[in-house]
Write a structure and sequence with these properties.
There is one protein chain. With 218 residues, the protein is mainly α. The chain has one domain (3-217). Helix content is 87%, strand content 0%. It has eight helices and no strands. Helix 1 packs across helix 3 (51-75), helix 4 (79-101) crosses helix 8 (175-217) and helix 5 (106-132) packs antiparallel against helix 6. The mean pLDDT is 90.
Length: 218
């Protein structure tokens, strides 16, 4: 990890967040910064453009987001439970990405990391829809359903297939890298289950709203 890259990149993400915060609430601004980072890495990877710098961009983003998360926890201690998975995720991400800079399974890890970033696209879009259009139940339900399909496809099928096809290379990684990869992989299943529950709740809410509408009309 090149510290000469990381410090300026943390400042870069902070500046982007500060500029967006002039027009949007901090939580939405941070979500938009995460979305920009996501698209940035996917773009770099898709065109095989300066991948080593792209890795540093992601590491810098994770450090920036950790600072943001801890600042929110400092303001409200109850945030810790909700944000703990993101703290673990970011620390794991920093370690694994830094391992690629040392030459540890770079091609395989970056391919998998690209899949993970693709799975997050609808997460950021859905969050924005919920915050900006909370009163539109159908729109939120559609957004959540697309997120479930997209996230589950990339995390449960595309990533699982890649892991299976490259299982021999997996056992060549250091133990800590293996452990953290399994942790991030497991998070995908946990979050998919959470999204499924959320979609079931949305369905029941829409059915209830529809029933009330027809009851009042009758």
């Amino acid at each position: 990890m090149n510290i000469e890259y990381i410090a300026p990149l943390i400042c870069f993400w902070h500046v982007i967040s500060a500029e967006i915060s002039k027009y949007k609430p901090p939580a939405i601004a941070n979500n938009m910064v995460s979305f920009i980072h996501c698209l940035s890495f996917i773009g770099h990877y898709s065109y095989n453009y300066n991948l080593e710098y792209a890795i540093h961009i992601s590491i810098g983003f994770y450090f920036y987001d950790l600072f943001y998360i801890f600042s929110q926890i400092f303001k409200e201690k109850s945030e810790l439970k909700q944000r703990a998975p993101f703290i673990i995720h970011h620390i794991a991400g920093i370690y694994i990405l830094n391992a690629t800079l040392a030459g540890e399974g770079k091609d395989h890890i970056l391919y998998a990391y690209n899949i993970l970033e693709k799975s997050n696209i609808m997460l950021y879009i859905s969050y924005y829809v919920h915050k900006q259009y909370a009163e539109h139940l159908k729109l939120n339900a559609i957004s959540d359903f697309i997120q479930l399909l997209s996230y589950s496809y990339y995390r449960l099928f595309a990533l699982s297939l890649f892991v299976y096809n490259n299982r021999i290379h997996f056992f060549e990684f250091h133990f800590m890298t293996q452990f953290l990869i399994i942790g991030v992989y497991g998070m995908g299943y946990a979050w998919s289950y959470r999204l499924l529950q959320k979609n079931i709740e949305n369905y029941n809410r829409l059915i209830s709203a529809r029933s009330k509408k027809y009851s009042s009309a009758g």
